[in-house]
# Entry
Amino acid sequence: MKILVCMSVVPDTTTKITFTDNNTKFNSQGVQFIINPYDELSLTKALEIAEQHSGTVTVVNVGLADADAVIRKALAIGANDAIRINAEPKDAQFVAEQIAAIVKANGYDLVLTGRESIDYNGGMVCSLLGALLDWPSVNVCAKMVYNDGKIEFERDIDGGRQTVVSNLPVVASAQKDLCEPRIPNMKGIMAARTKPLQVVEPAQVEVASSYEAFESPAAKQAVRMIDAENAGQLIDILKNEAKIIA
Amino acid sequence: MTGIYAENSEGQFKKAVLEAASYASQIGNGQIVAVCVGQPNAGEADKLAQYGVNKLICIEGISAFDAQVYGKEIANVLINQGVNQVVFANTYEAKSVAPRVSVIMNASMASNVIELPETSNGFKVKRGVFSGKGFAYVTLDKANKVIAITPNSTELKKQATSIQIETIQSSGSAGSTTITSTTKAGGKIPLTEAEIVVSAGRGMKGPENWGMVEELAEILGAATACSKPVSDMGWRPHGEHVGQTGITIKPNLYIAIGISGAIQHLAGVSSSKVIVAINKDPEAPFFKAADYGIVGDAFEVLPKLISAAKAAKN
Ligand SMILES: Cc1cc2nc3c(=O)[nH]c(=O)nc-3n(C[C@H](O)[C@H](O)[C@H](O)COP(=O)(O)OP(=O)(O)OC[C@H]3O[C@@H](n4cnc5c(N)ncnc54)[C@H](O)[C@@H]3O)c2cc1C
Ligand SMILES: Nc1ncnc2c1ncn2[C@@H]1O[C@H](COP(=O)(O)O)[C@@H](O)[C@H]1O
# Structure
């Protein structure tokens, strides 16, 4: 059982998001970077499956050298080895094409992603990989159980949940509830130092999109307070002034 | 030519699909073609026509949802129709299908798109990034384009036309997945599409107190949501959890009751058009993100809101 976990490196969840260079770049000054929370879940699930079925877990990241510290953390959590594709992750399509090339070269039974990265929120890489590899893809999974050459997934659908059984190979994306993320222990941190982190150069791919500028959400107007004694007044305001309820 | 994917849920086209139709009619010149899997209920095609769709192609012969099969069959039809730009409503189903269609069509794709494109110089869309904490302007460089729009973020603009319906057989591509069971949250409005959301947090003290929250939601025609600890403790189903690690929503009205307003919670709701915070603590951070606020005990405020909302209905 060879498992590949796609990992994006993202600003810590409490980061105040600002932009620089005339709003053309994310301002990473003083920002702490972490493993994308959904990727932490897929990594943990991959380790659980690998432990039960004598498998291996490789982590792949498309990113520059500054991602290495976070990749080491994934190794400390328990991944066997890591691959970094040495390129700025331009967009989800670029990332997926790079990872698809790795999958084709090395061969895996299971590829996991997060349901989305918390920075670019594309939610696209899982399905893109499915199409690029012509594999089945199962998106937004809160459960994954490997059994007898197949995986049973529980995935979110609009207004509900669905159980889906897939043949291998398959690519799937992780949703919260999949598992409790593991944290590195001392032994893992020591072991991570000597685990292989292979750096490979990117494949040439056609440019799909260009990020040109960023914008912060408009500042909110000051809150208008309504006296709790007359709470019902809120309904009147929402209906007749804000015209937001019928 | 411009296409849309007309996702149907039990034969019906949801509002989000009509938004996709309206978006497509506004960016397209010429025919707008919609592709759907299976047959919609009687009268549903006319809804699409209201928003400018001239042609609906129904694909017959696909027995169950499989992302790989849907991707191929839908892309096939779009390519055969000569479609070069496709609009999806960004639902769960679309997230599984749209990227696959973009690969097969060799298109550029953007998800979470919230405005019509700017086309004076290339094709530039605005999309939500950083979990509600920012927006990006992205140019889609390839000739073909796939756009997935966030429900409730674009205007529904009537542009009535007549619609022609065609049925074609699927090409029979085979999938590798089998659906073994489906559980639907019965009859409720899906959170991601709701125009009004009533949400509550740990301030409600326990699951037994949600009756009031549900009652207010019912009267307002709203979906219900909750904070992370509330779903973690099992007070509410997981699917209601909004925020950084939950669902991101963008309703017209978000009412937060007994929720402190932690940054991770706000990340999932701050793009709502109007936010109301109800909290007994005047220092609760939610008031900084809200348009309207009530400082008070939820157990006293909610009954007042419920009776006012009832009165306003009649
Ligand atoms: C990595 C990470 C990701 C996270 N992701 C999310 C996420 O996606 N979504 C999310 O919600 N949280 C998330 N959190 C948790 C978040 O930080 C907060 O802990 C959480 O949102 C708090 O939930 P709460 O407001 O319901 O509870 P509390 O913080 O306990 O707040 C309860 C509020 O209710 C008020 N209150 C109490 N009694 C009453 C009453 N009778 N009437 C009126 N008001 C009352 C209190 O004044 C208080 O403000 C995340 C945290 C981390 C670290
Ligand atoms: N730069 C990257 N390197 C490796 N995997 C990535 C990268 N960016 C995104 N992914 C994977 O794709 C998932 C979805 O990302 P996105 O489509 O950007 O929302 C993430 O949870 C990761 O698993």
